[in-house]
Write a structure and sequence with these properties.
By secondary structure, the protein is an all-alpha fold. A two-stranded antiparallel sheet has the order 1-2. The longest helix is centred in the C-terminal third of the chain and has 24 residues. The two termini are 16 Å apart.
Length: 363
């Protein structure tokens, strides 16, 4: 329950200090949970084991993910695993803070921090999937560097992208978005290059994808993944097919609503923000495809970062267009669904849940 209590304090701080809101203070709550974690069941303990008994002959080296390998090699020579997690979490919080600071609407940046804290596929997932979390955060910082449009920051973004790839090769998804953004801001001259269609069509498309999801996966995606001569991909394919029908009505309803609001917001978003809105919209469709598919669901990490840039602007647009009441209803929808994704894990003590979470200094 510790995570829930800290999250409630974060919400209270955000609501009571909106005039003097400070992102650095807000991320102290995130850092407190991420940096001083213990009793986190799952990948956390396998990473601890690999760190404590470091060897160049492990699954990370076999995948060729050398940046993570040499980072852990360096730190395990000098500090304990708990100190390593503190330093890693501090860097990750820095990356996310810089990203939100750069791209989100300043008035409602607190919404992004709250969603990052409570939505399961943000902070909680990063506490388990350490390598993948670091790769995503390196990509977020790459966006910041590219947006500065200076030669040295572009070079630094290239280094960060390489580091992300050699931390977790699946981050190639986010890396492609990073350099797509560079092309977009460099060569796209028009702010109206994307013709916005009726937002309702997006909601209908989500519903159709849901109803024909298993047929789509079995007919197209699973055979394509089967072409790779790799058991890893075949296991993914089986998971896709087996869990295709396990998405309930509530997530589908939420996705249909949120994607239609995102499509509506495309009309008001400024040029650079539109790029992130489109990634966020694609992410909603990916969510429908990968929902409840085990490790494959982590693919969402490479799309959800866009929401942190987009949702504060959406909140501002809803308020400006429809008033304060509509804004609070929209925020209630966002927070309610975020809690729906995380509350069972935060409060439960069964299996790989976070209900047994403790700070390292409590042990």
């Amino acid at each position: 329950m510790i995570i829930l209590y800290v999250g409630i304090i974060l919400i209270l701080y955000s609501l009571l200090s909106r005039g003097k809101y400070n992102l650095s203070i807000a991320f102290l709550f995130v850092f407190l949970i991420m940096g001083f974690q213990s009793n986190v069941v799952g990948d956390y303990y396998s990473y601890m084991e690999e760190y404590t008994n470091f060897s160049f002959e492990n699954h990370v080296s076999r995948k060729g993910e050398y940046f993570w390998l040499y980072v852990t090699y360096f730190f395990q020579k000098h500090v304990s695993f708990h100190v390593f997690i503190i330093l890693l979490s501090l860097f990750e919080c820095y990356c996310v803070k810089k990203y939100i600071e750069r791209f989100s609407n300043e008035k409602y940046s607190y919404v992004s921090v709250i969603l990052f804290f409570f939505t399961f596929n943000y902070m909680l997932m990063q506490m388990k999937a350490l390598r993948q979390g670091l790769a995503v955060d390196l990509c977020m910082l790459s966006f910041v560097m590219i947006d500065k449009c200076k030669k040295k920051t572009i070079f630094f973004a290239a280094l960060l992208s390489l580091a992300a790839y050699y931390t977790h090769k699946s981050s190639l998804v986010s890396i492609s978005f990073v350099w797509g953004y560079w092309i977009y801001i460099r060569y796209s001259k028009s702010n109206s290059w994307f013709k916005v269609t009726n937002p309702i069509y997006f909601a209908i498309a989500i519903l159709l994808l849901y109803f024909f999801k298993k047929t789509f996966l079995d007919t197209y995606l699973v055979p394509i993944m089967g072409m790779f001569d790799d058991d890893h991909y075949m296991n993914y394919a089986r998971d896709f097919s087996e869990y295709a029908g396990q998405m309930g009505f509530l997530p589908i309803l939420y996705n249909a609503i949120i994607v239609s609001i995102m499509a509506w917001y495309l009309r008001f978003a400024k040029k650079r923000e539109r790029y992130f809105v489109i990634i966020a919209i694609v992410g909603v469709f990916v969510d429908v495809l990968v929902f409840a598919t085990g490790s494959i669901q982590r693919l969402l990490l490479y799309f959800l970062f866009a929401n942190l840039a987009v949702i504060p602007g959406m909140t501002y647009a809803v308020e400006k267009k429809y008033g304060s009441v509509s804004k609070w209803l929209f925020l209630a929808l966002l927070l309610g669904y975020a809690l729906k994704t995380s509350l069972p894990s935060i409060t439960s003590t069964i299996g790989d849940k976070f209900g047994n979470y403790q700070f390292i200094f409590m042990q």
